[in-house]
User: Fold this.
Amino acid sequence: MVTDETLRLPTIQFRAVLDLGECLAAAIPLPEALGHPDLFADWGDDGEALNLSVDFEDGQLHIVLDDTGPTFHFHGNEDPYESPWPQTETETLLQWALTLAQEIYTLEDLLDSIADAADWFEQGFTLYVPETDPTQLELIELGITGELLTLPWLGSGTVDHEHIDGDHHPIALVWTPVPGRDGQQIARAWLDPATGEPRTEALPGVDWNAVAMAEDEVLSWLLGIYANHHVAPTPEAQIMRAALERMGGISSSSV
Assistant:
């Protein structure tokens, strides 16, 4: 089962004005083979350490930066301190990523501004402008991918979805027939490692008459929920990626 893209809401053009600092990482050209990473940054639980993920199809560089300095490790090999890429490319990637992480760390309000921009988008606005002292600002323009249209839950009781152990990002659909009772896992969804598409299956022992929806209807509904919440990047992640790409010299346009 694959998602029906005809049910996806249209892409919406959005603009955000942000303080991106001096964009020092943009002066460090990435190797061609590593020229288009998927970027994401957030603050740790204590709000003191910055996490920067630089993802590629064949591996990931993860940087943690706090007031004691940076640490980093890789994903893609058994040894987290062994790069999946050749030494020369790794050295350039590290220089670029450490410079980018330091700039994000210095711009303490950047990630909050990106979250605010996403909130403005969710409220229907197409332009975000922050409150700021006079400074050089950058205009980020991007098309934010629309969600798949999904109906509300039409069966009995209530449902929720939760992450479960396993490979390929599995989740379980938990059905609760009566408030206050324990829920029952009735289906699960995961990413097919071969195609990258979401897959679903019903779990055994489910009384579909009690659920009040047919098995195939539940699986179709779960597919849309999984695609929206666990596959498609959120508006915040899409705005962040565009901003970090600008800071890293992967895209360029200014105001």
